[in-house]
Structures are given as structure tokens and as C-alpha cells.
Amino acid sequence: MNVIATPAKPDAILTEGPIAERAHRLVPHLAAGAAEADAQDRFVAENYALLKQAGLVEAGVPTELGGAGAGVRELAEMLRILAHGCSSTALAFSMHTHQVAVPAWRWRHQKLAAMEPLLKRIAAERIILLSSGGSDWLPGSGKAERVEGGYRITARKVFSSGAPLGDLMMTGAVLHEDGADHVLHFAVNMKAPEVKVLDTWRALGMRGTGSHDVAIEGLFIPDAGVALKRPAGQWHPLFHIIATIAFPLVYAVYLGVAEQARDLAVTLAKRRVPTEDVLHLAGRMDTSLRAARLAHDWMLQTAERNAPSADSINDVMTGKALVTEHAIRTVELALELSGGAGFHRAAGLERLFRDIQGARYHPLQAGPQARYAGAMALGAPVDRIF
Fold it and tell me: Could you tell me the keywords of this UniProt record (predicted)?
């Protein structure tokens, strides 16, 4: 697959200062190769080298365990800023970031000492975590077979963003036992011989995320390696935590994409004498962007309540639906405002227009989100709405 692993060498990458400042310093360096990575369907490996140099890989690890101790709002700001440089880098990195933020939250708020080894390793080694949550989600995917001392795993994990440089994939597989399906959760060593990254990522947008399929063929997971066993196809307290924390981070990226499209469109529009129609388009665009920002802030406020539950899922997913609608609309209006100049690939807007479409596809998608919100309003069960 197309991966360039040679680290870029910007003039100054400093680990001092807030993580938002570090992200700002990286933006021009990330932007330099964004169009090329998109055109070649090439994973942004060189940008991951920059993220490591800047100390952003361990940003969400508590300071007591060697990280920067950033909370969800700070991490979201980091990802939003990174998206101004390269959408694909920011989105792929959001998958690592939320996989760090969840155990950090559990260590901090649930006092789970079991989270410490992973968090310390992220800080010390700057390993990259992969997520298969979007492809697995609540039903799970793949097959787990009981063998002596553990389980044999066979699976194909799709949309595995960052797969070419991942160290550990946080994933699961379905075990059929006692007449019911259960999902086992575990970490997969991406260097294991039974694990292979397949060169499959050819997509409309976010082409540099390296979201290839990962094939797992006969991987042994010992009993001690299983972190959780839960019923398949329904909400679980752990997923209340994961979704409440993860989606404000992921959707910070899409907000950043919308902001960057707006800024590019304004730059292009200012080259012309503004007509009444141009003013109208610019006003509608900024109004949509403000709506997306307000909705995203609602997502962050929900996460900051530190009370994951069915209610927090409803609030986060309602915010997610609004960010999706208004971020996409912002980019549509930006493309229209830019006029013919924006239609050229060199302007960068058509790439952002394609990248923003990814906001449609993360769970909960439009149908399940509306049903979940409706069930909450009417007092109906939501445990199997996903």
C-alpha cells in the first residue's frame, strides 16, 4: 500500500505549551502534503511522525502517568485545529485519541488501576491505538471460538483508520455460547503474524486516513486478554462511556473541516466585488457554521458532565446529528460562495467537500439517532436502538 514513513522535519516542533499551540504549529506542515495524499490514496504516515514529535500521541494520558493530562475539550480543540491542516490526519488521529481518552477517563473517574499499563505505555512508547468501533459497534463482528486457555479469533475489521502504522487495535469478536451471542473485547497486536492490513481504502473522501480492512486469521487471545464480555446488539455501560467521550472528539474534526472550507471560500470571494447574492451566501454559510459550533459545544458539555448513560448518549447523538447537518451545509455553501474558482481542485474546496461527507457515516446515523431520540421522548426502551 502507499505509505511514506519518512518523518517530515519542520523548522520547530516544540512539546512545550498547551496542546492547542502545538497543533497550530503543525497545521502548515500537515497541509503541505494533504492534496498529494488525497490524490494518491496515500496514508499520511509522515504526519503521524509529526504528531509524535509534538507529543500529541500522549496528550490525553494523565500527567501522573506521563502524558499531558488533556481533557476532552482540550483534545477536541487539538483535533479541530489539526483538521485545518489535513482532514485525513485529524480524523485518523481522532480514532487513536478517543481510545486514549476512554481509559484515561476510567482511570480518573472509576479509579480503575487496570488502565494504567496501557496509558503508561502510550506515554513512554508513543504507540498508536486503532479503533474498530465503527465497523463493530454494538453487534460486534468476527468470530471467537473457545479453545484451551482462551479463544481463536477470525475477523475482518473494516474502516480501521490509521491501520498502516497502528500498534494495537482495540476490538472484539462475537462468541456464540449458551444459545446467545456475546461480544468479547480485547487488544490485537498489529505486528502478530495472524494480522494483516489489506490495501482496500479507496474512498470518496478522507482518502489519506489509511482506513484499510484488517484481516485477523486464527489469532489466539488468552482468557486473561479478554477485557470484557457483553451481550451482542445492545447498549452496555462501557459503550455509554465510549460513545459519550469519543464522538465529541471525532466530530471536532468535521467542525474543523467546515471551518477551513469557510475560510477558503471567504478568501476566494473577497477577490470579487460582493453582490447581494454573494453577501447572502456568506451570511448563510456563517450561520450554518455557528450552528455547528453550538451543537459541538453541546456535545462537549455533555461529556464534561462525567455521567455516561442513556441520557448522555441521547444528548451527544443529537449534537452529532446537528453538527453533521450544519457542517455539511457550511461546506456546500462555501463551495457555492467561492464561485468557479472553488470548482478547481487546486483551491482545495472540492477535497474538503468530499471529506465532510464522512460525517454522515459514523454511528448513530440519521435513522437510528432519530429513533433513539424519539424513544427517549416517549419513554420507550432504547437499549437496542443503535
Answer: FAD, Flavoprotein, Membrane, Oxidoreductase, Transmembrane, Transmembrane helix
Q: What does pTM read for this prediction?
A: 0.95
| Cell 504528531 belongs to residue | 51
Q: Is 148 left (phi over 0), alpha (psi -120 to 50) or beta?
A: beta
Distance of CA 267 to the CA centre of its chain: 28
123 and 68 in contact (C-beta within 8 Å)? Answer: no
- The cell for 316 is 451527544
CB atoms within 10 A of CB 105: 23
CA 328, CA 369: separation in Å to the nearest integer? 17
Instruction: Give the span between the Cα atoms of 242 and 259, in whole angstroms.
Output: 26
What distance in Å separates the CA atoms of residue 320 and residue 251, rounded to the nearest whole number?
A: 7
What are 345-358's pLDDT values in tens digits? 999 999 999 999 99
Distances (CA, A) of 142 to 70, 133, 139, 154, 185: 34, 13, 10, 6, 11
Q: List the one residue out of 8, 78, 76 whose CA is nearest residue 36.
A: 8
Residue ranges of domains in the chain, CATH in brackets = 19-127 (1.10.540.10), 133-231 (2.40.110.10), 237-378 (1.20.140.10)
Among 137, 20, 7, 121, which residue's Cα sits nearest to residue 61? 121
Region of 379 please: left (phi>0), alpha (psi -120 to 50) or beta. Answer: left
Alpha-carbon distance 358 to 256, whole Å? 13
